[in-house]
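Tutorial, part two.
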Amino acid sequence: MNTDLRHRLGKSLIFRYVDEPRRDEIIELADILEFSDGETIIREGEVSAHIYLVVQGEVCVNVGEREGHPVYLSTIGEGEIFGEAGIFLKTARTANVDSLGSSRILRLHRSDLMDFIKRDPSTGIRVLMIIIYGLLRKLRESNQELAYERKGDSEQEDIDALVESLVRDVENPAR
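Running the prediction step on this input gives:
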């Protein structure tokens, strides 16, 4: 295996607590894919049983379209994982993931990960705990963003009430 690839993967959170022989074993089960700028890695709505790790480069997560452009959600960089739901659920992907510039991505299928966990439960549990930690971190960030949006909505209600009051005063001035 390429030394640069081994080094990059060793720095990622998902492999940081996995010894080198087990890390190499997992990597042998996976595919290393290369994408060019703008190329789609995951398409919203597709069903896939894979989890992904950015080995090199960055990817952009976006959904749907507004005014003819995808709605940006986040950027995921080297060492970070995405598509975690694919190893837990048989459900449609909720977002598009596109390469920003050129990128190298590790893709691991659910069945290969589960086979590894059966062979080495101790290491497998560590990997699953890191995946779950990542999901919880993303959930917390989403909750914080929703709370911020809701706060903005309540502030907008105050502004709307003020504007409505001013319009009423202009239309019906006190005599």
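DSSP finds six helices and six strands in the chain. In part three we will examine how such features are distributed along the chain.
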